[in-house]
Amino acid sequence: VNLVLLEPSEVGAEGAVTDVTDIIDVIIGGVRGRHLLNVLRVLPGQQVRVGVLDGPCGVGTVVSVADGAVGLRCTFETTTPPRPRVDLLLALPRPKVMRRLWAQIAALGVGQIVLTNAERVERNYFDTHVLTAECYRPLLIEGLQQAQDTRLPRVSIHRQFKVLLEDNLDELDGMAGQGLRLAADPMATTTVGTLVRESGQERTLLAIGPEGGWNAFERALLEAHGFRSVGMGPRTLRTDTACIALLALVHAAAA
Amino acid sequence: VNLVLLEPSEVGAEGAVTDVTDIIDVIIGGVRGRHLLNVLRVLPGQQVRVGVLDGPCGVGTVVSVADGAVGLRCTFETTTPPRPRVDLLLALPRPKVMRRLWAQIAALGVGQIVLTNAERVERNYFDTHVLTAECYRPLLIEGLQQAQDTRLPRVSIHRQFKVLLEDNLDELDGMAGQGLRLAADPMATTTVGTLVRESGQERTLLAIGPEGGWNAFERALLEAHGFRSVGMGPRTLRTDTACIALLALVHAAAA
To answer: ipTM score here?
Structure first.
């Protein structure tokens, strides 16, 4: 953990926080408290990086250590980190893979995670607890704490690919019309870097298909909705490896 | 599996194979046979991509299907795929993470995997079976079969970082003197892409430190041996995520 994330409620805010100007005292117990005590081994007087979910980062000074809990006196910056400029449209991988991906996607930085069905996604993948907020929210927060970000990726889950592309996609926050749309395709020869640098767009939506790829109908639908095919060379990668590699490439090209 | 890899002994070669000009019949049983039968559901007359470890790729026509084994009549290309132009110097992560990385590293494409100790690597990480060839070789092959490559990454394991850098590194095959040397550093502002594109070198050796980073001595030693610091922006990533992301960035910049 490189940053301790606080819930808005812990700093006395309701809902999202955009600025916190006061000095705020919080008591950190539970998993975070044990981590501070047993891994980071904090002592009174030390400082740790803190942040408020979807709010600003700041610094917490340890003011007390007792009963498995750590008291922090926090001050916050006046601005909130920008939302990552990449969104991910991902054909749902099998639960074991998805479970491992949550934290890694959040660490790499994604504004929105849009999970979808596809012909080559098994239907029962949607029934897993890995898709419940109780499961994925702590994993996303783990990734944010690793990467020192406060922007929790939004998550939406869609069981009908066609409906998603035709009706839902433009309604998802921040996706309306604008932005570069890319679809990973092992056959494509255009690279991510080329299109991202050329486009000059503020945001990129990256679509990654299932193991075995999108079928012809799905590919046509993506193309009809403005997605351009990008490749990563002749090597075919597993979904999870491709996901990390492509997010890194988009971020590097957009920087 | 996008390509079925054969051992040189299966095509009648001793040691590495550089070209196989004959038509060769092989019987594929075991795990590969079951995969062909139960996942790819091959039938007589169908063709599958084949390759010889460290040798050429080719095509196998299914000529028999019996008793959990598949008979393939194979022809091979006259050239062997080039060795990936990236080598990886990795501070040994914990066994569970390393176990997951083998196949992904092989899929992304690495000529040589050099594992090393560092101050922030726990000593007992070296005692795991994950570092035995019996464990990692099948995982590397799994990654190659995914990526359709035949070049098995060489693996070497070093318990003394100082000895590795001062005495062993130049003796490792293909590392002598030449090539770009990069060390991932969350603090660095120079990007992988910039240095790889500028260097014009044939090969890149990428060093990735332990969780918590190299210590000051190790960083100085890397610098003294020609490693230049590269960053990926302000987000700190876990070793495994960083490894995949950075290999993707080096490959994209070297392409």
So the answer is: 0.93
